[in-house]
Amino acid sequence: MLRYFLLSRLLRVFIVFFIIVLLNFLLPRAMPGDPASILANEYNLPADTVRILRSTWKLDRPLYEQFFAYLESLFTGQWGYSYKYYPRTVYELVMERLPWTLLLQGITSLTVSGLGIIMGILAGWRRGSKVDVSITVSAIVVYAIPYYWLALMLQYVFGYILKVFPVAHAVTPGLPHANFFEYALDTLWHLALPVTAVTLTAYASYTLVTRNSMVDVLEEDFIFVAKAKGLPERVVMKHAIRNALLPPLTMLAIRLGHIVGGAVITETVFSYPGVGYLIYESIIYKDYPVLNAAFFMLAITVIAANFAADLLYAVVDPRIRYVKRG
Amino acid sequence: MSSIRREIYYVLIANKFGLVGFSIILAFALVAVFADHLAPYDPYEIVAPPYTPPNERFLLGTNDIGQDILSEFVYGARVSLYVGLTAPFIASLIGTMLGLVAGYLGGVVDEVVTGTVDVMLALPTLPLIIILAAYIGPSLNNIVLVLAFFGWSGFARIVRAQVLSLRERPYVEAARAVGASGFRIMVKHILPHVIPLIIANIVLSATSAILTEAGLSFLGLGDPIAKSWGQILRRAQVGHAFHQGLWLWVFVPGMGIALLGAGFTLLGIAIEERVNPRLRFSRK
Fold first, then answer.
1. Which of A243, A307, B137, B277 has its CA 20 to 30 A from that of A8?
2. In whole angstroms, what is the distance from residue A165 CA to residue B44 CA?
3. Cβ neighbours around A76 below 10 Å, total
C-alpha cells in the first residue's frame, strides 16, 4: 500500500511539474516579439548580437527543439538576461536576492505558525468558552485583513509618526557598520515592521485549523479514557496537542515551499530586496525572463514541499495510506 | 417553502455570526447598488487639486490626480462584490458538475476528474495567478476567469465526496429501481442535497477571491479602469499618501476589504455550521 501511495503521488508531482514547465515555456512565446528582439529594441543591440542570441536560444529552430533546449538551459541555471538589468543574468539577480527572502520568510514562518498554533490550542481546549469565542472571532476578522494594508498602516504609525522603525530596505543604505553585531542589529531593526505585519494577519488560518483539529481530537475515546482515569489536565492536554498538530504542521510544510517566492506584496511595500520585490519589478517592467525564472524556482519548491507534506502525513499517520482515495 | 424559511431563520437570525456577516454584506451591497446616488462625485472626474486634505466637501480628500477618494471607495464596493460573487459562482458551477458526474458514474470518469483535481490542488496557485495575470493582461473579467479556473477543484472534491455517500442511500436505490435515468437521479435526487454545502463554500471562497483581486490590483495587475479598493491602495502607495499626511486614503479602502471579507467568512461559517453540525460552537 505504501508503494502504491508513493507511486501515485510521484506521478502527480511529475504531471504538475510538466504543466509548470510547459506553461513557462509557452507563455513568453505567445507574447509579441521574441526575447532577442525585445532586448535589441531596448538596448539598440547590433544585428550580429541579435543573431547570435537567437541561435544560442535556438529561437530560429522548430518549437520542439526549442523546448528541449529550454529544458537544458533551465536545469543548468542559464535563465537568460534580465531585460531591465541587462547585461546581468537572471540567475545572478535571483541568487543575490534569495538570502534576504529566506531570512524574512524564515522568521515569519516561525512567528506565524507559532502564534497561530498556540492560539488555536487555547481556543480548542476551552471550546465554547469566552476564550474560544474571542480567539476564533478575532481570527476570522484578522483572516480577511489584507496584510499589505496592515503593513502600510504600521508604516504610517511607527515609521512616519513615531519614527521608531524604518519603512524601507533591509539595512540602512550607506551606513558603515562597525562590526557584524551592529550589522545584524540593523537588519533585525528593519525586519520589525514586515515581520509584525505578516505575523498579525497570517497567524489566523493556523489558529482556525488548529482549533478545529483540537476540537476533533478532544472528542476521541482516548481523551475520554485519559480524563476518566484521572490524569491531570496538563497531561491530557499534552496527549491532545500531539494528535492535533498534524494539520497545522502540514500547513507549515506547504508554507515552507512558498518561501523562495518571497512575500511579493510585503517586500514591495517595504522595498525589501528579496525575490518577491524582484518579481514585482519584473511585472512592472515586463521583465519576462526574470518573472519566468522566479516562477520556475518557486514552482519547484512548492511541488517539493507539497510532496514532503504528503509523505509527512503518511509517515506520521499510517491511517492515511490505507485509504485508497476519497 | 417553510423549511427554507426555517433554514434562513437559523442561519441569518438565530446565529450571531450569520446575522453580523449578513448585515455587513447587505450594507456593502446597498452601497454598491446605490453607488450613483451615494457617491458625492463621479469617481473618474477630476474635481479638486491633487492631494486635497479631507474637508467637508471631500470627506476623505482627493488622490494624486484630484479625484474624490470617497467616491472611489463607494464605487469600489461594486468591484469587490462582483469579483467575490462571480468567481466562486463560476467555479462552483464547473466543480459541481464534474464532482457530480465523477462521484455518480465512478470508473474512468472518476479517475480522470480526481486525478485532475489532485493536480490542480498541487499547483502553486497564487504565483500562477500572478504570472497569468501578468501575461494575459489586466481586465476584471480575466481576473474572474483565472480565479474561477483555480477555484473549481475544491468544489469538485467536496461534491464528489458527498455524492459518493448519497448514491448508496436507499432512496436513490429506489429511484433507480423504478427506472429513473442517471441524469434524473443526479439532478433531481442528489443535487438538492449537495446545494447547501455548495452555497456554504461559495460564500467562504468569496473572501479569498476578494483578497486576491485586491492583491493583484495593488501589485498593478488589476484592471486599470475598474475602481477597486486594491487599485485605490495602489494609487495611495505609488502617490506617497503618507508623505502628504493622507492616511485615510489608505485606511478606508483597507477597512472595506477587511470588513467585507470578514462578513463573507462569518456568513459562510454560519451556513457551514448549519449544514455540518459537528462544527457547532456550543458544547454537545
1. A243
2. 36
3. 9
CB atoms B124 and A258 under 8 Å: yes
Q: A81 by DSSP, 3-state: which?
A: strand
CA A263, A267, A269, A270: dihedral to nearest 10 degrees? Answer: 140
Q: In sequence order, what are the beta bridge partners of A89?
A: A81
Which residue in A312, A188, A190 sits closest to A251, CA to CA?
A: A312
Report pLDDT for B277.
57
Cell numbers found for residue B151:
477555484
> Which residues of B fall within a CB distance of 8 Å from A303?
122, 124
Helix, strand, or coil (residue B62): strand
A54-108, pLDDT tens digit by residue? 777 677 778 888 888 788 878 787 787 787 787 788 888 888 888 999 999 999 9
The residue among A4, A15, A148, A216 with the most chain B CBs within 10 A of its CB, best to mutate, is: A148
Q: What is the DSSP letter of B61?
A: -
The maximal CA–CA distance of chain A, rounded, in angstroms, is 85
Q: Phi and psi dihedrals of B223, rounded to 5?
A: -75, 115
The answer to whether B215 touches A148, Cβ cutoff 8 Å, is: yes
Which set of grid coordinates corresponds to residue A321? 495510506
B158 to chain A: closest CA residue:
A326
Judge contact between A16 and B121, C-beta under 8 A.
no
- Residue A81 backbone dihedrals phi, psi, to 5 degrees: -105, 145
Q: How far apart are alpha carbons B223 and B227 in whole angstroms?
A: 8
Tell me the per-residue pLDDT of B54-86, one tens digit each, with 9 for 90 and over.
888 888 888 888 899 999 999 999 999 999 999
DSSP helix/strand/coil, B72: helix
What is the residue whose three cell numbers read 501578468?
Answer: B134
**Helix, strand, or coil (residue A78):** coil
Q: How confident is the model at residue B283 (pLDDT cuts 50, 70, 90)?
A: very low
**Cα distances (Å, whole numbers) of residue A56 to A33, A79, A141:** 17, 12, 53
What pTM was estimated for this model as a whole?
A: 0.86
CA-based nearest residue in chain B for residue A145: B258
ipTM of the complex: 0.82
Q: Give A269-303 pLDDT, tens digit per residue.
A: 888 898 888 888 887 777 778 888 888 888 788 88
Q: Report the C-alpha gap between B129 and B88 in whole angstroms.
A: 15
Contacts of B118 in chain A (CB under 8 A): 12
Residue A261 has pLDDT above 70, yes or no: no
* Least confident span in A23-37, A207-221, B114-128: A23-37
Report d(CA B123, CA B128) in Å as an integer: 8
The DSSP secondary-structure symbol of B113 reads H
Mean pLDDT across chain B, nearest whole number?
88
Find the closest chain B residue to A212 by CA distance: B279
Interface test with B, best of A21, A131, A152, A255 (most B CBs within 10 A): A152
Q: In chain B, how many H helices and how many E strands?
A: 12, 0
- pLDDT recorded at residue A318: 62
